[in-house]
Structure of Nitrogenase-stabilizing/protective protein NifW:
Amino acid sequence: MTNEDFELDMSELSSAEEFLEYFGIEYERGIVQVNRLHILQRFHDYLAQADEMPESADAQWALHADLLKAAYADFVSSDAATEKVFRVFRMNEPKQVAVPLSDLMEQVPHAPSV
C-alpha cells in the first residue's frame, strides 16, 4: 500500500463502522450505535496526541488501527458521560446566583425603596 492509497482510503471512510471494518477491528453494534461520535472523536484526539506519524503507509495503518482499537475499547468498558469526550460533558454545572431586589432597584431611576 502506498501513502496515497492509504490517504485515499481514509478520505472515503465516513462512519464509525466503516473505520472499524477497514482496520479489521471486531466490534459490538450496540456499543457503536450508542457511542459512534464519541469513538470517532476519541480516535481523532488520540491521533492528535501521536508524537510522530510514521513514514510508511503500512506503519501508518498499524498506528491508526491501534489508536482506533483503543478509542473503541474506552467505550466498551465505560460510557460517554464518564469519558467526557465532548466539551459539553466537561462543562461545570450551572451556578445559581442570587441578586437582592434592593440592588436591582438601585439601578432604576425613581424606583421606590424596598
Notes: The chain is about 65% helix and 0% strand. Helices lie at 3-12, 16-22, 29-49, 57-76, 80-83, 87-90, 101-106. The radius of gyration is 24 Å. The CA atoms of residues 15 and 36 lie 8 Å apart.
